[in-house]
Fold this sequence. Notes:
mainly alpha, elongated, 13 helices
Amino acid sequence: MLILVGAFIVLAATLGGFLMEGGNPMVLVQVSEFVVILGVAAGVLVIASPGHVLKEIIHKVKGAIGGKTAGRAEFNDLLKLLYEIFLMGRRNGLIALEEHVMEPEKSALFQKYPSVLKHHERVEFLCNGLKPVIDGKIKPDQLEQLMEVELRAKAAEAEHPVHILQLVSDSLPGIGIVAAVLGIINTMAAISEGPAKVGEHVASALTGTLLGIFVAYGFVSPLANRIKFNNASDEQCLKCIMQAVAGFAKGLAPLTAVEIARRSLDSSVQPGSAELEASLKELAPAK
């Protein structure tokens, strides 16, 4: 919800400064300018985006406005799940993991960590990494390369909405100029109506330029950047999984594989070493 606080600050600062200079806020309410600028921007969005990217833009915007990135507690749960999986594989054999990997939503092990299970992409990435290990179809030193390829593909796909929103942001100032030119055309048509009417039309035209620049740099560009940060957080989760699974496949002890994954995290979300070790010791032995 912090993004809404930022939007409020942008609006409050802009209108506050305008009012301090004696401006009338109703002058800024030019419906025709809103229709032109926002309508053309929406058209640019539709023209530039395939259907699946449009759906992903809506999903990413909702996530940026109402959601939050993975925090320390969520990463702690992820590391605990990885530890339990590795411990079960070490004690009971890799074949014991098959039922959990094939149907994670039905797995009692995964169900212990709803904060992980609710993210389908992360669970799928984890299971896809473990399946070749269980089947023995790939050498341990090849697994990390395989997971890196999948990770790069997911990262590139996640950036599509960012690129489209940045395109819209770059287009908005120009769209504002188009709206202003349309306003000037109306002004020229009304020049015989006197200075008052001409002034009204000029104010309306200038509002179009203002709106295009304001929406671009006050909202769309920051929103694209927030989505980029959210994507980086999601990618960090996948990298954490990759580091742990690749380490386990190479024969590292479960605790060591999890510790490598922990150290790959940013300091802002990284659980402390002692904190994580204490929480792992509290886990019931895998069955």
